[in-house]
Specification:
This protein is α/β, with parallel strands linked by helices and about 475 residues long. It contains 19 helices and 14 strands. The mean pLDDT is about 95. The chain binds nicotinamide-adenine-dinucleotide (NAD) and uridine-5'-diphosphate-glucuronic acid.
Length: about 475
């Protein structure tokens, strides 16, 4: 096939990746029509919302990009078949969560949505269509995608439907998605058909310098995505393991991170100790890697990577345990304020957020949690905790009743002062900027003494906490 100039793109999946990625492609390639389709009507309606503060994904800068391109060459629709039929290039950007049952449950990726997309493409595509795997997929998934597409090529009734398959994994991080998409460290394109690769390169070349566009074979591309996430997550588990050792020895993990990060071979990024990594992908992608290693007869390699996830769960439980221990061994009936529920700052995403596991552990212990997050709504928190919100109790009588019942409850708090009022402890679990700027001299008198601040994100200034008469635990800070 000659190098096709891409005029029309369809992206299946209007989620955290499909939406922002296609918005940036449309913004940077005004000559290309980009249609993002999804089976979820509510999500598509939200992408079409005239109020740009109500897009389904919160990302700094996304609203401006959507404002420029939407309606011009960026469209959001549920007309999946129509958009595929009109496209020269179809991106598959659907969810690939961990399987919950059957073969590989708990580790392997559930590829049912990817397969459904491939079948949808065989039904609706016309002419030559380049199919691009944007979802994160186990290495060798392209084989299955190609086999499904080949069935359509063979059964085409003379109308000449042909396909090429590329792998083009996405490396954006939530909260910095627009910056990552507009100025990527690299764009990775894996494939066998050089013309198809050139076509996708021509799209990215609108704004990405050539030297940042890497070409590999299909399998290297698929595997590089899993490996990149595994390496990043491994650094977090490594620094969190050292944080625990710092607490036990009188060292300070921030100082250790600075000391080791100054070695240019190690580098300073991704050495922030915290409540463990969250997000929809690190755990799922490592578990997928673990599954693949076992499948390919490499159990020792599988165990090595599995330990990264185990250490992460351990860190989350460890923080909940620390809170209980510091509060005289019990949190039953105690009011604890949780600041931050999103898995990181600048996103409304709570998938695998450390706050979920930590809050669940504390609820199990009978704690009364006031939860504050500037971007996560209370319905989402209720779904994550599998527990409906209670009404905010009266500080005197409400908490006493709850203390007697021993049942853990939670309620959402729109403002930080009311979350903290009457609390025995504050736990900071997301590094939102506003938590860096809290006035502890004003907040401390609202709490029940002796009161604690547990800073799992290193956002407070210790001297301010101490001056306000509060006890402070910081992740990775040993007592000298
Ligand atoms: P998401 O769940 O936010 O979005 C996926 C969307 O696909 C959903 O809206 C769903 O309704 C839609 N969908 C599923 N099957 C469909 C079908 N057959 N037809 C039409 N629409 C369909 O997921 P996401 O976070 O955007 O992730 C997508 C992929 O990108 C995953 O493989 C993930 O691992 C990868 N990834 C995610 C991130 C991230 O930061 N979230 C970063 C890099 C890569
Ligand atoms: C991550 C990768 O950074 C992206 O490159 C990748 O595309 C994406 O996963 C994906 O495949 O989904 P993301 O999960 O959005 O992006 O966010 P990160 O910034 O990587 O943070 C992940 C988690 O690690 C967060 O909970 C964060 O708080 C935590 N983290 C990060 C730390 O605890 N310490 C650090 O030093 C860095």
């Amino acid at each position: 096939m000659p190098v096709a100039s891409i005029r029309s793109i369809c992206c299946i999946g209007a989620g955290y990746v499909g939406g922002p990625t296609m918005a940036v492609i449309a913004d940077r390639c005004p000559d290309v029509q980009v249609t993002v389709v999804d089976i979820n009507q509510t999500r598509i309606d939200a992408w079409n919302n005239s109020d740009l503060s109500r897009l389904p994904v919160y990302e700094p800068g996304l609203d401006a990009v959507v404002r420029r391109a939407r309606g011009r060459n960026l469209h959001f629709s549920t007309a999946v078949e129509e958009a595929i039929a009109a496209a020269d290039m179809v991106f598959i950007s659907v969810n690939t969560p961990t399987k919950t049952k059957g073969l590989g449950a708990g580790q392997a990726s559930d590829l049912r949505w990817v397969e459904a997309c491939a079948r949808q493409v065989t039904k609706s595509a016309t002419g030559h269509t380049i199919v691009v795997e944007k979802s994160t997929l186990p290495v060798r998934t392209a084989e299955a995608v190609k086999a499904i597409l080949a069935s359509a090529e063979q059964s085409s009734d003379g109308s000449q439907v042909t396909f090429a398959v590329l792998s083009n994994p996405e490396f954006l991080a939530e909260g910095t998605a627009i910056q990552d998409l507009e100025s990527p460290d690299r764009v990775l394109i894996g494939g066998e058909d050089p013309d198809a690769i050139d076509s996708l390169v021509s799209v990215y070349s609108h704004w990405v310098p050539q030297e940042r566009i890497l070409r590999t074979n299909l399998w290297s591309s698929e595997l590089s995505k899993l490996t990149a996430n595994a390496f990043l997550a491994q650094r977090i588990s490594s620094i969190n393991s050292v944080a625990a050792l710092c607490e036990a020895t009188g060292a300070d993990v921030r100082e250790v991170a600075r000391a080791i990060g100054s070695d240019s071979r190690i580098g300073a990024k991704f050495l922030q100790a915290g409540p463990g990594f969250g997000g929809s992908c690190f755990q799922k992608d490592i578990l997928n890697l673990v599954y693949l290693c076992r499948h390919f007869g490499l159990p020792d390699v599988a165990n090595y990577w599995e330990s990264v996830v185990q250490l992460n769960s351990w860190q989350q439980h460890r923080i909940a345990r620390t809170v209980v221990q510091k509060l005289f061994g019990t949190v039953t009936g105690k009011h604890v304020a949780i600041l931050g529920f999103a898995f990181k700052a600048d996103t409304n995403d709570t998938r695998e957020a450390p706050a979920i596991r930590i809050a669940k552990d504390l609820l199990e212990e009978g704690a009364q949690l006031a939860i504050h997050d500037p971007k996560v709504d209370s319905e989402q928190i209720a779904r994550d905790l599998q527990l409906p919100a209670s009404t905010e109790p009266d500080v005197e009588s409400g908490l006493t009743r709850a203390a007697l019942s021993g049942e853990g409850t939670w309620w959402p708090s729109d403002d930080i002062a009311s979350a903290i009022k009457g609390a025995d402890a504050v736990i900071i679990l997301t590094e939102w900027n506003q938590y860096r700027e809290l006035n502890w001299a004003v907040l401390a008198p609202l709490m029940r003494q002796p009161a604690w601040v547990f800073d799992a994100r290193s956002v407070v200034t210790p001297s301010e906490i101490q001056a306000a008469g509060l006890n402070l635990w910081r992740v990775g800070e040993g007592q000298p």
